[in-house]
TrEMBL record:
Superkingdom of origin organism: Eukaryota
Transmembrane stretches, start-end: 257-275
Any single Pfam family the record assigns to this protein: RabGAP-TBC
Residue ranges annotated for the Rab-GAP TBC domain, each copy included: 1-129
GO biological process, one term: endoplasmic reticulum to Golgi vesicle-mediated transport
Species whose genome carries this gene: Zymoseptoria brevis
GO function term, MF aspect, one: GTPase activator activity
Keyword Transmembrane listed: yes
Gene Ontology CC annotations of this record: endoplasmic reticulum membrane
Protein name: Rab-GAP TBC domain-containing protein
Keyword Ribonucleoprotein tagged: no
Coiled-coil positions: none
Record's keyword terms, sorted: GTPase activation, Membrane, Transmembrane, Transmembrane helix
InterPro entries listed in its UniProt record: Rab-GAP-TBC_dom, Rab-GAP_TBC_sf, TBC20/Gyp8-like
Length: 314
């Protein structure tokens, strides 16, 4: 193992040992390697900790759900910027444009090898909001419009393959200028389909909006946001599982029963309260109580449905 690789391994290991809540993801080493090259071994460690907890925290959650939320911004940005291209790419962007995952997850460190370019790009990205890497990807897609329109929209696999690879060479300064214009013209809060409203208040997409606020955030703040966000995702996953069980039961026993309607009403109301309070992500006691009630009521409705099903089968 070379000295550089040992330094990289030492920094990553130290971060994960100091903050064991963080989950390593493929490509994390690409980001830390840039910090090592630019800052040196001594300064890279503290920078990596702060970056991990306050900037790329969503990517270090137990599941990919936090990262997927970033990707969901991309179709909305494309729709606002170029509806023709958006519609052409709709087959490749739905339900989630995973072709943008590698680039945005690693802040492009996995794709850009030139030291000067990646150092310049990190300067730009880390001085901007956490949503900007997605806007940069949208800018790259828009710059390839002619090439992409030449591919049949009925070939989403081909489009996905092309979009997952960044064009070379990149005219970086021009792209950064266009990204700045795109972000200013269509900020996250004004994207369609209420996509921004569905972003957790504990996501770095929202906690990095204010530079002054970000500058005062502590590592403890980052850990608190992490725990709140992870809990939201866990609740959402449980609700998703319960919804699927309800759909399965409703499909299996489609004829109306006397009390099925009541059970469904309970479930729907619970879904409303659970979903609306979960999106807020405020962490307040009232919101937590509402989420708890919603999940409990949903389970009661589900048990009522299952009981009716059992009676019917008997």
């Amino acid at each position: 193992m070379t000295a550089r690789k040992r330094e990289l391994s030492n920094v990553i290991t130290a971060v994960l040992r100091q903050h064991p809540i963080l989950c390593y993801f493929q490509g994390y080493h690409d980001i830390i390697q840039v910090l090592l090259l630019v800052l040196g071994a001594e300064a890279a460690g503290p920078a990596a900790v702060r970056l991990s907890l306050l900037r790329i925290r969503d990517f270090m959650l137990p599941t990919l759900s936090g990262a997927e939320a970033h990707l969901h911004l991309l179709p909305a940005i494309l729709y606002k910027a170029d509806e023709e291209l958006y519609r052409h790419l709709s087959g490749a962007t739905k339900p989630t444009p995973f072709f943008a995952l590698a680039a945005t997850l690693t802040l492009y460190a996995h794709d850009i090898e030139e030291y000067g370019d990646i150092a310049r790009l990190f300067d730009y990205l880390l001085a901007s909001e956490a949503a900007v890497p997605v806007y940069l990807f949208a800018t790259i897609v828009l710059s390839r419009k002619k090439e992409l329109l030449e591919i049949d929209h009925d070939e989403p696999e081909m489009l996905h393959s092309i979009l997952s690879k960044l064009p070379k060479p990149l005219n970086l300064e021009s792209l950064l200028q266009s990204t700045r214009t795109l972000f200013t013209s269509h900020p996250p809060s004004r994207l369609p389909d209420r996509v921004w409203r569905h972003i957790s208040a504990n996501s770095v997409l929202k906690t990095t909006q204010s530079r002054s606020h970000l500058a005062t955030q502590t590592l403890q703040d980052g850990e608190r946001y992490f725990h709140l966000h992870a809990a939201e995702i866990e609740r959402a996953d449980r609700m998703k599982e319960l919804r699927q069980r309800v759909r399965t039961l409703a499909w299996k026993y489609r004829r109306p029963l006397k009390w099925t309607g009541a059970a469904v009403v309970i479930a729907v109301v619970a879904l409303y309260f659970g979903g609306s309070s979960g999106a807020a992500g405020s962490g307040s006691s009232a919101a937590a109580a509402s989420r708890t009630w919603g999940l409990t009521a949903f389970k009661q409705g589900l048990r009522m449905l299952e009981g009716l099903v059992g009676c019917r089968e008997g």
